[in-house]
Fold this sequence. Notes:
Radius of gyration: 23 Å
Shape: globular
Largest sheet: 5 strands, parallel
Strand order of the largest sheet: 3-2-1-4-16
Distance between the termini: 30 Å
Number of helices: 20
Structural class: alpha/beta
Bound molecules: flavin-adenine dinucleotide, iron/sulfur cluster
Amino acid sequence: MGKPTGFLEYERQASQKRAIEERKQDYNEVDVTYDKQQTKEQAARCMDCGIPFCHSGCPLGNIIPEFNDAVYDENWKLAYELLSSTNNFPEFTGRICPAPCEASCVLGINKPPVAIEYIEKSIIEKAFEEGWVVPQPPANRTGKKVAVVGSGPAGMAAADQLNKAGHTVTLFERADQIGGLVRYGIPDFKLNKDIIDRRAEVMKAEGIVIKTGVTVGVDVKASQLERDFDAVVLTGGSTVPRDLNIPGRELKGVHFAMEFLSQQNKRVADSKGKPVDQSVDHQGVAYQNGELFATDKNVVVIGGGDTGSDCVGTSNRHKAKSINQIEIMPMPPKERAESTPWPQWPMQLRTSTSHEEGCERAWSINTKEFVGDENGNLKALKLVEIEWVKDNGRMAMKEIPGTEQEVPCELALIAAGFLHPQHEGLLNDLGIEYDQRGNINAPKYQTSNEKIFAAGDMRRGQSLVVWAISEGREAARAVDEYLMGESFLEAKAVSMISPAYLNI
Ligand SMILES: Cc1cc2nc3c(=O)[nH]c(=O)nc-3n(C[C@H](O)[C@H](O)[C@H](O)COP(=O)(O)OP(=O)(O)OC[C@H]3O[C@@H](n4cnc5c(N)ncnc54)[C@H](O)[C@@H]3O)c2cc1C
Ligand code: SF4
């Protein structure tokens, strides 16, 4: 234990944020870089618990008390080695993880938990600064070839692990750059895309072949994939969005959140180094018609989750006239709900940095209709307040009479989650079996076709980056065992907490 009295002496202090008015003017990260002294003090708050619940709260089994101690001792190199032994991309999770480890931290029972995510980000940024993150190609190659299809965090982690095991890995991506939703979903103000590029350079130098702009199933047929590789890992994500099929869905101005977010990330990438002011001339980059801007519009974001919050932050940067975010479920309690006591993932109200930048939020609201003008443009949303009542033991939605209202809206963004991966094309061509939710059925990462494996959102459904990395690592281990009969890749630490709690 670094400092026995640390948790008594220091208050929790996580990442500092840039001032709201300043950060709304650009797409740079909201969080400022770490401060060495602050990180040391935060690490000193760790009690090095006999049973470190943080460790099992983390889907990666990160060895948290040990790296906290190492940081307190200013042995940053050791801290980096401990962290990178279980997490391939702490620079992602240190920025955008909701930190289930913190929700299960023992200190959190009666004080604010240890700022684990902030410490994690500090360690990996220090490691890059010091030049400790260098390519480490495997000493020997096995001669086995593995294709990884989809370069989100699951695919990147699987490729990284399989390459470490000595297999020759090709990582296929249909987009122009790797990263999956971390690249084209999560906005730059949460995670700057140089962070992905920096890691991609290391992976390439370690021998991973990255092929972007290749849609597997179209440019490379399923049969060719099976023929050319000894094993295949499918990590294509959960890409079919949940729609809102109500009257007026066809109107101009009604879009899925991902259309809006990915366009903005692309604009930021295209205007690298220059300020992005989309209301002016798009920095000389020629854009097709159909570009989505919230500028001067009344925006309604339908869906209260992370994706919706990212739409709020982006709309504020576009200088929208008004921003409303509505959610069909009731407002969660401000504090941890009694139904989710420590160390479970708490059901409680979450306010993101995007919410802090300004928007109206409302819960228990149902959208009944998109209302258009005579030219087919969206002009309003017909909304109604609802209550949730028990009906035959199940919760059912009931409209509250007299609460129907029309809210002006020229841009409606549907952020209602994702159903499952796309079945048509590659997956059906490979004869993949699906589970009841339409995700790939691969209980132990291996599908019914023994040389085909799956991981990430494609297998577990829409989830989190930390789970995607964990799944990529586990799938890589399963592939390695399949190819070599045994695997020396690190196994995941056994969780003390029921997986149901961690499935957030
Ligand atoms: C807007 C948004 C914000 C989010 N914010 C957070 C957050 O703050 N924190 C968090 O932890 N999680 C967040 N998530 C969830 C997180 O991004 C995902 O859970 C995670 O990225 C899933 O990783 P993955 O590798 O399984 O799939 P993805 O990241 O979806 O990557 C799949 C990749 O496969 C490629 N692909 C698919 N099919 C093919 C094919 N046939 N050939 C070639 N390539 C193919 C796709 O182009 C894509 O690049 C967010 C999600 C969204 C949508
Ligand atoms: S549970 Fe919290 S206090 Fe205990 S070891 Fe983990 S981080 Fe430290």
